[in-house]
Amino acid sequence: MRTLLSVTFLAVTLVAADTPLPGGFDQARWGMTVAELRAGTEVSRVEATDEFGYAEHSEQDPEVYYRVTPRHERIEYYFYRGRLYKIFVIYDRVYFHTNFYEDLVGEMKKSFGPPQKAYSEQIFGLTIQHTRWEDDKAILDLRKGAGFIYQVRIDKAAQLEKERAGARKKSI
């Protein structure tokens, strides 16, 4: 039994390693500047007075730009030190009470293999489901909760740099 589990784990690891996660979304790529994003995509800056604000509530005063697609998806682009490091794709609420989330998980499994994690957490008293893929460069986290379905794509190197800077700031 132990040998079978080891072989299965190795096979899963090899599938994930052979299929790297995307380095962004559509034409947006990790590390690009706002000017580079604007050259290929019409976006607006999220302002504190916006009704919707931005999806990542754990961020404090982030530099965020967004656009809405013809299918009513809201795409949010997060910048750290002037470089793109995180993207949210927020799907229209009409999909929340359908099998849309499960269908997205199925599509991602076909593209990237089995997820490394699937779990739920409580945020602001609401249950959020996560299905998460990760490789050495990126994270892709499909989430469902609070009336939304969304995917979060993250540049791991930039996020680590941001976390370290935040830890240094707290220690001062």
Task: Describe the fold and architecture.
With 172 residues, the chain is of the alpha+beta class. It has one domain (2-171). Helices cover 31% and strands 34% of the residues. It is globular. The chain starts with a helix and ends with a helix.
List keywords for this structure.
disordered N terminus; alpha+beta; 172 residues; two-stranded antiparallel sheet; eight-stranded antiparallel sheet; 4 helices
Residue share in helix: 25-40%
Average pLDDT: 84
Counted up, domains total 1
Low-confidence stretches: 1-17
Q: Which structural class should the secondary elements be placed in? A: alpha+beta
The percent range for strand residues is 25-35%
Task: Profile the largest sheet.
Answer: 8 strands, antiparallel
Strand order of the largest sheet: 3-4-5-6-10-9-8-7
The number of distinct helices, counting runs of at least 4 residues, comes to 4
Strand tally: 10
What's the end-to-end separation, in Å?
51 Å
Order of helices and strands: HEEHEEEEHEEEEH
Shape: globular
Radius of gyration: 17 Å
Provide a compact summary of the structure.
The chain is an alpha+beta fold and 172 residues long. The chain contains four helices and ten strands.
Q: What is the element layout, followed by pairings?
A:
Elements: H1 2-18, E1 24-25, E2 28-29, H2 34-40, E3 44-45, E4 63-68, E5 74-80, E6 83-90, H3 100-112, E7 117-123, E8 126-134, E9 138-145, E10 148-155, H4 156-171
Antiparallel strand pairs: 1-2, 3-4, 4-5, 5-6, 6-10, 7-8, 8-9, 9-10
